[in-house]
């Protein structure tokens, strides 16, 4: 897990890379890689790569980056983990390649030499990387299918600058930092900035599952190599019903497979352990896989003691059953305020969430860990959110209004000014949006509705931003081709809430503490396995997932009402008048927006 940076000058008006600029971008990401740093510039200085390293696999200096092949044809900077690198290494060795390290980084080099840009189809893991190809005189960028690892770039038509953080690219004075309407509108629409946008016109996120090639002449090829909806759709391959025992074994095999891959490390790995089914299942499977020493970390909050939201008693019960080396970290309101400044300094883009990820990552780092396993993704994959039942009901009940859209628009126009004084302003959009999966999802996950935004954002910015976001059309694309309601909602939750908020939050929050977080539920092979079951008449839920370990989970965990991995942030915030603006977390969103912009600018 690391921070990468690159600057490449291309086209007819070639300029040399400013070494100080590249170093400034690199070293602004110190927390992403405190163990080592590296820099490489080509002889003509038209391309430069830089890296900060958090050593996880192959801890020796020989695995430092930028790394090259023996002929110096290929240079790479890489952030992430390739979980199938050992299998790939064996295959490459059988084809005559020899290795000087035991790192996954070197595997990427020779995989590229063997398969070129098609290398991405062989990878299993979380990754973002930049490869310089001296022979073909071009730069190749790629980002993993779910977007677990970030990759941002600024391209002015003559020079492209690349980094693992938006904040890092802002160290350059050559980037257009004027307001990007889609980024600002997107934040208040969702509570996060939807990719590929940022708050700045000159900076974009390389979308998840996308690769970009740029050569020295300025020719560019942008290729989407992974589409979730396509992966989730599978033809019926089973000619007889799946029995409960077969379902359990299929899930167990798939879950053990992803867990065994996600535990590969040359440093100790811990598990974030709450009182929920997701993390408890992963901790139990980690023990069954045969981890050397199971380490678990739980957050506790004084405000939640003796309530159903208190994670500590049940988490400690599980840790005793698993005989793990356990640590409970208590967090109070004073800790929240003490860490407030550092939290906003770490938040790369404004986000409504991320506080829980920040504090649990801090607890893991304080325990001496470099790597931790998170249960993120279990709800999206196994239908754990209320949206899996609410959205289909809404669509089925209101789809009649899709044929008469003027009724929905009229209802919203006349009701919106009134409803906001009595209930959620979202209800004004029920008839307009509720009859489709995309519209219902916007109602379910949206922070503000589009018609509310001109109340506090410039009207022209809202119009331009809403048009550029093309929200409803992009939501439709997310589940294009899917007909099963479970898979439709799963694709929406995975591609929007998880990708743009949860995964991004866990990245900046964990890396601010120099911690790598792995997400076994967010795995292409596991998604394929579960989707295949759904497409063949099974709908595995949380209870099925929980039955996959041979070591049964405690009844207290299995029968516990879902509360989510929460912290008492709302109570903490409501003690301060500056957060008390609007319903729910709307006041907090305005504070986050101003705080992150203020600290970046």
Structural features, described:
It is built from 25 helices and 17 strands. Helix content is 42%, strand content 15%. It has 601 residues and is α+β, with helices and mostly antiparallel strands. It folds into three domains: 2-226, Aminohydrolase, N-terminal nucleophile (Ntn) domain (Glutamine Phosphoribosylpyrophosphate, subunit 1, domain 1, 4-Layer Sandwich); 245-383 and 501-600, HUPs (Rossmann fold), CATH 3.40.50.620; 387-485, no CATH class. The strands form three sheets. It has a six-stranded antiparallel sheet. Strands 4-5-6-7-11-12 form a six-stranded antiparallel sheet, covered by helices on one side. The longest helix is centred in the C-terminal third of the chain and has 27 residues, at 485-511. α17 (437-445) packs parallel to α20 (485-511). The radius of gyration is 24 Å and the shape is globular.
Output the CATH homologous superfamily of the largest domain. Answer: HUPs
What fold name stands as the CATH topology of the largest domain?
Rossmann fold
Taken as a percent bin, the fraction of beta residues is: 15-25%
Structural class: alpha+beta
Number of strands: 17
Biggest sheet, strands in spatial order? 2-3-1-9-8-10
Spell out the blueprint of helices and strands:
Elements: E1 2-9, H1 19-27, E2 36-41, E3 47-53, E4 67-68, E5 74-82, H2 85-94, H3 104-115, E6 125-133, E7 138-143, E8 152-155, E9 159-163, H4 166-169, H5 181-190, E10 204-205, E11 210-215, E12 220-224, H6 228-232, H7 244-262, E13 269-272, H8 277-289, E14 295-301, H9 312-322, E15 325-331, H10 333-338, H11 340-346, H12 355-366, E16 371-373, H13 378-382, H14 387-398, H15 405-419, H16 430-433, H17 437-445, H18 459-469, H19 471-478, H20 485-511, E17 516-518, H21 524-535, H22 542-546, H23 555-558, H24 569-574, H25 586-600
Parallel strand pairs: 13-14, 13-16, 14-15, 16-17
Antiparallel strand pairs: 1-3, 1-9, 2-3, 4-5, 5-6, 6-7, 7-11, 8-9, 8-10, 11-12
């Amino acid at each position: 897990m690391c921070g990468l940076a690159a600057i490449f000058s291309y086209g007819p008006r070639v300029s040399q890379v400013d070494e100080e600029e590249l170093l400034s971008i690199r070293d602004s990401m110190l927390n992403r890689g405190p163990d080592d740093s590296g820099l490489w510039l080509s002889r003509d200085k038209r391309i430069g790569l830089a890296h900060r390293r958090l050593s996880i696999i192959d801890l020796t200096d020989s695995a430092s980056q930028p790394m090259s092949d023996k002929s110096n044809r290929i240079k790479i900077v890489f952030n992430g983990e390739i979980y199938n690198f050992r299998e790939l290494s064996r295959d490459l060795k059988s084809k005559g390649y020899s290795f000087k390290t035991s790192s996954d980084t070197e595997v990427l080099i020779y995989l590229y030499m063997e398969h070129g840009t098609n290398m991405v189809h062989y990878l299993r893991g979380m990754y973002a990387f930049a490869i310089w190809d001296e022979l073909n005189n071009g730069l190749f960028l790629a980002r993993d299918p779910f977007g677990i690892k970030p990759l941002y770039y600024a391209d002015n038509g003559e020079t492209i600058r690349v980094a693992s953080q938006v904040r890092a690219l802002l160290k350059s004075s050559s980037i257009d930092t004027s307001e990007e309407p889609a980024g600002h509108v997107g934040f208040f629409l969702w509570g996060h900035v939807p990719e590929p946008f940022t708050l700045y016109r000159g900076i974009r996120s390389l979308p998840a599952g996308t690769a970009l090639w740029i050569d020295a002449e300025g020719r560019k090829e942008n290729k989407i190599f992974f589409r979730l909806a396509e992966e989730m759709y599978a033809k019926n391959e089973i000619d007889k019903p799946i029995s409960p025992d077969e379902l359990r074994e299929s899930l167990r095999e798939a879950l053990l497979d992803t867990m065994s891959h996600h535990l590969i490390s040359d440093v100790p790995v811990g598990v974030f352990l709450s009182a929920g089914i997701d993390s408890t299942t992963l901790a139990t499977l980690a023990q069954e896989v045969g981890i050397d020493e199971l380490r678990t970390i739980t957050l506790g909050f004084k405000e939640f003691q003796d309530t159903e939201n208190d994670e500590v008693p049940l988490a400690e019960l599980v840790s005793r059953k698993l005989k793990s080396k356990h640590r409970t970290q208590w967090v109070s309101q004073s800790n929240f305020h003490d860490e407030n400044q550092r939290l906003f300094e770490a938040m790369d883009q404004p986000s409504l969430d991320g506080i829980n990820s920040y504090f649990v990552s801090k607890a893991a780092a304080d325990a001496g860990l470099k790597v931790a396993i998170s249960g993120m993704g279990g709800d999206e994959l196994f239908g754990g959110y209320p949206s899996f039942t609410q959205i289909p009901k809404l669509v089925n009940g209101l789809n009649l209004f899709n044929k008469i859209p003027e009724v929905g628009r009229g209802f919203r126009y006349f009701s919106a000014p009134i409803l906001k004084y009595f209930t959620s302003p979202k209800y004004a959009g029920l008839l307009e949006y509720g009859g489709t999966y995309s519209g219902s999802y916007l109602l379910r996950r949206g922070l503000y509705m589009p018609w509310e935004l001109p109340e506090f954002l410039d009207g022209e910015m809202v119009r331009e931003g809403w048009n550029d976001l093309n929200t409803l059309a992009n939501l439709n694309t997310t589940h294009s081709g899917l007909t099963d309601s479970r898979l439709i909602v799963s694709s929406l939750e995975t591609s929007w809430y998880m990708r743009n908020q949860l995964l991004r939050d866990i990245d900046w929050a964990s890396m601010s503490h120099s911690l790598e977080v792995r997400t076994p539920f967010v795995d292409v092979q596991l998604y394929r396995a579960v989707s295949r079951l759904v497409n063949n008449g099974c709908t595995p839920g949380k209870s099925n997932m929980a039955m996959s370990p041979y070591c049964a989970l405690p009844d207290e965990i299995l029968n516990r009402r879902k509360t989510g991995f929460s912290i008492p942030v709302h109570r903490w915030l409501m003690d301060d008048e500056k957060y008390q603006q609007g319903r729910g977390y709307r006041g907090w969103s305005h504070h986050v927006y101003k705080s992150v912009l203020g600290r970046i600018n």
